[in-house]
Backbone:
C-alpha cells in the first residue's frame, strides 16, 4: 500500500494508432512513454488494444466483408512474450515507470483483448484478457477468465485494470475492489459510437472511483479523418467512427482531477493525492465497514481456464466404474458450486 501522504503523477495517453503497421504503432507508444516520463509521470496508460490497433472495422463491416481485415489483425497481433513485449519492458525499466498497454494478443489460432502492465523494474506483473468481448467484438476475440481479475502491487501502489464495457459488469469491478485497488486503470477504444459513448464512459469512470474509493486513470484512442475514410467511405458508417473519447483522471471523490481530453491526440497528466483514498473510505468502504458479506458476497473463480484437464491413466486394478468420472475432473466440476 502506498504511503497515505504520497503524491503520484500519472499520465493517460489519447493517441491514434498506425492502422497499417504494428511496428509504427509501437514506435508511437514508446515515444509517448518517453514524453510522459519527461513530464514526471510514474504511471502511463494507453488505450484499449492499441497495439497494433483496435478492430474498428468490425463495428462497421459485416462479417462477410471483414475477413481480410481480421486476418491482417492476426498477422500484426502481439504474442506474449515477444520482441514487442521485451521492448516495452526494457523501456519501462529505463524510464522507471509503470506502463499499461492494451494489445491484440495472438495465442496460436485465437486473438484476445489483453491488458499488459509493466512495473517500473520492467517486469510484466499483469497480463489479463477481457472476460467478455462486447457485441461486434465477439467475432474478433476469445474470452478471458477469472484469473486476470486481480490487483497487483507496483511501484505506484495497488493497481487493477478493466477494459471498456467490463465496467458494466459490477461483479468484475467488485472482484478488484475486494483486493483494495488504489489506482484503477481503464481503457476504451475511443472514436466509436458517437458523443453518447464519451458521456457513458465519464459516468462509468466517476461511478467506479466513488464506489471503489480509488483513483481512475482512463485512456481512449483517437482516429484521424484520413483513418476514418480508410475504414469506410460511407458517410453514414463514418458517423460511428467519431467522438466517443473521454481520456480522464478521476479522484476517489468522483471528480475530474484535471479537465478530460475528448478530441485529438494528447497526454493528460495529473498529480494524485493518495490521502483522498482514506478520506473517501472513511465514509464508505464497499468491501469493508459498508459491506454485508453475510447477506451478499462474491464467488470468484480465480483458476485459469483450461481446454484440457490431464488425468493419469488408471492402473490395472482400477475398475471401469472408478475410471468413468476421475475424481480430479469431478473436483474441478464441483469446486465452483461448493465455494462460499
Residues:
Amino acid at each position: 500500500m502506498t504511503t497515505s501522504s504520497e503524491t503520484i503523477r500519472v499520465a493517460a495517453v489519447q493517441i491514434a494508432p498506425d492502422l497499417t503497421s504494428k511496428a509504427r504503432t509501437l514506435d508511437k507508444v514508446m515515444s509517448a512513454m518517453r514524453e510522459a516520463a519527461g513530464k514526471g509521470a510514474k504511471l502511463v496508460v494507453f488505450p484499449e488494444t492499441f497495439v497494433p490497433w483496435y478492430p474498428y472495422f468490425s463495428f462497421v463491416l459485416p462479417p462477410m466483408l471483414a475477413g481480410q481485415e481480421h486476418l491482417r489483425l492476426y498477422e500484426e497481433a502481439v504474442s506474449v512474450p515477444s520482441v514487442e513485449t521485451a521492448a516495452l519492458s526494457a523501456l519501462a525499466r529505463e524510464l522507471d515507470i509503470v506502463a499499461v498497454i492494451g494489445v491484440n494478443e495472438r495465442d496460436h489460432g485465437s486473438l484476445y483483448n489483453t491488458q499488459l502492465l509493466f512495473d517500473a523494474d520492467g517486469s510484466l506483473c499483469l497480463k489479463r484478457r477481457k472476460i467478455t468481448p462486447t457485441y461486434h467484438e465477439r467475432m474478433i476475440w476469445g474470452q478471458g477468465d477469472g484469473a486476470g481479475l486481480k490487483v497487483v502491487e507496483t511501484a505506484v501502489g495497488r493497481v487493477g485494470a478493466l477494459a471498456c464495457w467490463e465496467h458494466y459488469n459490477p461483479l468484475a469491478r467488485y472482484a478488484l475492489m475486494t483486493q483494495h485497488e488504489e489506482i484503477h486503470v481503464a481503457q476504451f477504444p475511443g472514436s466509436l459510437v458517437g458523443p453518447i459513448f464519451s458521456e457513458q464512459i465519464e459516468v462509468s469512470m466517476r461511478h467506479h472511483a466513488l464506489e471503489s474509493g480509488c483513483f481512475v486513470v482512463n485512456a481512449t484512442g483517437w482516429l484521424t479523418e484520413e483513418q476514418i475514410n480508410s475504414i469506410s467511405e460511407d458517410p453514414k458508417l463514418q458517423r460511428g467512427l467519431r467522438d466517443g473519447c473521454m481520456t480522464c483522471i478521476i479522484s476517489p471523490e468522483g471528480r475530474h482531477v484535471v479537465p478530460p481530453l475528448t478530441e485529438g491526440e494528447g497526454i493528460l497528466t495529473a498529480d494524485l493525492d493518495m490521502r483522498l483514498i482514506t478520506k473517501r473510505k472513511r465514509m464508505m468502504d464497499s468491501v469493508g465497514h459498508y459491506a454485508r458479506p453475510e447477506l451478499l458476497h462474491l464467488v470468484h473463480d480465480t483458476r485459469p481456464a483450461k481446454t484440457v484437464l490431464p488425468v493419469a491413466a488408471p492402473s490395472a486394478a482400477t475398475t471401469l466404474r472408478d475410471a468413468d468420472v476421475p475424481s480430479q475432473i469431478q473436483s474441478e466440476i464441483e469446486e465452483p458450486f461448493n465455494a462460499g
